[in-house]
Design goal:
15 strands, BirA Bifunctional Protein, domain 2, 4 helices, alpha+beta, SH3 type barrels, five-stranded antiparallel β-sheet
Length: 257
């Protein structure tokens, strides 16, 4: 659907010159009473945060670093679903920024990492808290547009290296629109079924070898999709199918199959 025909109002975007972390800035706003919906974005992020306690030291000028502050208005048990919502929206913003067809090149890795030809181009961190008895969610999203950080343990890329001519503001505008669309879908009756189907259609192929780092140590197997709640399913060589709700996932090279 063209953005000019969107059946909802897009949240405002506040673009700052520099912050440590857009999630931390959004949290300060929530403490002060902000409830959104509001996007807080920055031209330069100096102390970004990642999942599993990772620290992303800098999102340089020319990249997207933004956080949506809003009240989800759902039961606490549904809050984890926002991870897949954010993944689908970010996938669409990335795919729409590339020249030519994105099919087969852009993929989602559980829960919400966006990959182009196997290299990570975005990161998502969702934080939720109660402020004055009201639940507020922060969806923090970074997209490598002009450059990619130097990461030693995984392949990374940026949209410019993949042939995109869009600048950070154009990609941010796409992200704002796609997130609004998928949050609206999620809020419909039985909306998570549509989110789960959209995520699955954008995911790495079934049967791809994965490794997930758990509290008990690494576990390797093959990707078997999602269960009805959005948890990761992995087929293990000796013990069969297992369900995971938390863990850092890596895609293993095909030659290890």
């Amino acid at each position: 659907m063209p953005d000019r025909l969107l059946p909802y109002v897009l949240p405002p975007v506040e673009l700052l010159d520099e912050v440590g972390s857009t999630n931390d800035e959004a949290q300060r706003r929530a403490v002060a009473g902000a409830r959104g919906p509001l996007w807080i974005a920055t031209r330069r992020q100096t102390a970004g945060k990642g999942r599993s306690g990772r620290v992303w030291n800098e999102a340089g000028t020319g990249n997207v670093a933004a956080t949506l502050l809003f009240v989800p208005g759902c039961a606490p048990a549904r809050l984890p679903e926002l991870s897949l919502v954010a993944g689908v929206a970010t996938f669409d913003a990335v795919a729409d920024s590339l020249p030519g067809p994105a099919s087969g090149r852009v993929e989602l890795k559980w829960p919400n990492d966006v990959l182009i030809d196997g290299a990570k181009v975005s990161g998502i961190l969702i934080e939720t808290g109660n402020y004055d008895t009201e639940t507020v969610s922060l969806i923090g999203i970074g997209i490598n547009v002009a450059s990619a950080p130097d990461v030693s343990d995984r392949a990374v890329s940026c949209l410019a290296a993949q042939g995109s001519s869009r600048d950070a503001r154009a990609v941010l505008d796409l992200l704002v629109a796609r997130t609004a669309h998928w949050l609206a879908e999620w809020k419909k009756p039985d909306g998570f079924a549509a989110i789960r189907a959209a995520w699955t259609a954008r995911a790495i192929p079934l049967g791809r070898r994965l490794e997930i780092k758990t509290r008990e140590g690494p576990v390797a197997g093959t990707f078997a999709g999602l269960d009805q709640d959005g948890a990761l399913l992995i087929d293990l060589p000796l013990t069969g199918r297992r369900r995971f709700t938390f863990g850092d996932v890596s895609v293993l090279p095909t030659e290890q199959a």
